[in-house]
Amino acid sequence: MLVTVLVLLGVFFVLVMLGVPIAVSIALATLSTLLLTLPADVAMTTLAQRLAAGLDSFTLLAIPFFVISGYLMGRGGIARRLIEAAKSLVGTLPGGLALVNTISCMLFGSISGSAVAATSAIGTFMIPTMEDEGYEREFSTSVTIAGSILGLLIPPSNVLIVYAVAAGSVSIAALFMAGYVPGLLAGTLLMLVASVYSHRKGYPRSARIPLRAALRKLADAAPSIAMVLIVVGGIIAGIFTATEASAIAVIYALVLSLIYREIKIADLPSILLKSIETTAMVLLLIGVSTGMAWVLAYGNIPQAISDGMLSISDNPFVVLLLINLILLIVGAFLDITPAILIFTPIFLPVAMELGMTPLHFGIMLVLNLSIGLCTPPVGSVLFVGCAVGETTIRQLVRPMLLLYSALIVALLLVTYIPILSEGLPRAAGLI
After folding, report:
1. Dihedral angle, C-alpha 40, 302, 155, 126, nearest 10 °
2. Do 47 and 138 sit in the same domain of this protein?
3. Residue 402 has pLDDT above 70, yes or no
4. N-term to C-term CA, the chain
5. In this structure, are residues 194 and 422 in contact, taking their beta carbons and an 8 Å threshold?
6. Same-domain check for residues 34 and 103
7. Are 296 and 30 in contact (CB under 8 A)?
């Protein structure tokens, strides 16, 4: 077993350090481990079978549809309308534009299902706007990055679907409901920190918007926000499944974008091509990560890790803290999709042994690994934010540390207070 772990992790990290794409690194590390015990042809066949089995799920069909709807919303003028709506609500508060940035990123991230898309779409407009109003570019960029990752907790969320597949027995509707309170809690803490920081720095407040104009901006953004209500509400009410809801989201996003006249029919081929590229990358990651998870299970590694962690302590506080620390480190090196698929079968049994439900663990896991998206050296959202904000990771360190502290506090609250994740699903009769 020790040799299996050393080969699997050793090959993977060496390839990542050499700049090999994550999906290819996972596939080659898995194949190298299989070759320890199986003939070459059998190892290749086994890997192919595991990859195909990992994608053989009707639930995963929701991912390409949500990707398409996300690109349609991103190109359809949704970002600008969400920003204007958020500005009418909180723009006059201390650090108003920072709060607008955070709310806009959360809303767009939840609607598009992509933290990277939220960082790019909102950051392209908000970072220069905040700088023109007197905010430091590094602070504006950091707020954009931190706010964008929280959209992954607020449905419709592709990574929550991935976790549902990895866990095997979790309702997607329950997961969607469970993400609201933790996502909003983390967002509130981020805005609190941003507001205090802005007040101390003396950043200006936005001019007050007349009530009639504010209501008009909210009404303009309402159809965009309504997509979340339609998709999630339909799933919870049992009107359609998550996969059917994703197809409805595509139709809704397309119709809305055409009504806004931000997208033309001639734009659809390029949008579909981009969606295919993104979907292919995501599904390849899911397939190869499932193969790696199978190799770990075949080597009885999850059980050994579970026994080892419980032998350290049977105190839930200590063990869950240890799991969070490990996941925070993992998230700094591994993208969120493969991390969920690989570490769910490892840590979920441990968490359940301590009395944590799969629903509660899933929200904790996604929030934890989302933080990794804005953590070097592999944080994809961090690098996109630096590109959009035309700054460097070194310059972002100081403001990001303040925002990290808010995210860590939110993670600890979600970890140790189950009702934050389970309250809404329980009230809705989903658990």
Report:
1. -80
2. no
3. yes
4. 37
5. no
6. no
7. no
CB of 142 within 8 A of CB of 396? yes
Look at residue 5 and tell me whether its pLDDT is greater than 80: no
Residue 1 pLDDT: 61
Q: What is the pLDDT of residue 358?
A: 95
Q: Would you say residue 409 has pLDDT above 90?
A: yes
Kindly state the tokens that stand for 239.
Answer: 């009107």
CB of 140 closer than 8 Å to CB of 98: yes
Please give the C-alpha separations between residue 298 and each of 33, 57, 146, 342, 427, in angstroms, as whole numbers. Answer: 11, 21, 37, 13, 39
Residue 363 neighbours by CB under 8 Å, 6+ apart: 153, 175, 178, 179, 182, 414, 421
Residues 267 and 254 sit within 8 Å (Cβ to Cβ): no
For residues 28 and 140, membership in a common domain is answered with no
Q: Which tens digits make up the pLDDT trace of 100-138?
A: 889 888 888 887 777 887 888 788 888 888 888 888 999
Task: In whole angstroms, give the CA distance from residue 1 to residue 300.
Answer: 8
Q: Do 43 and 97 fall into the same domain?
A: no
Query: Position of tokens 């570490």?
Result: 343
Tokens found for residue 394 = 């070194």
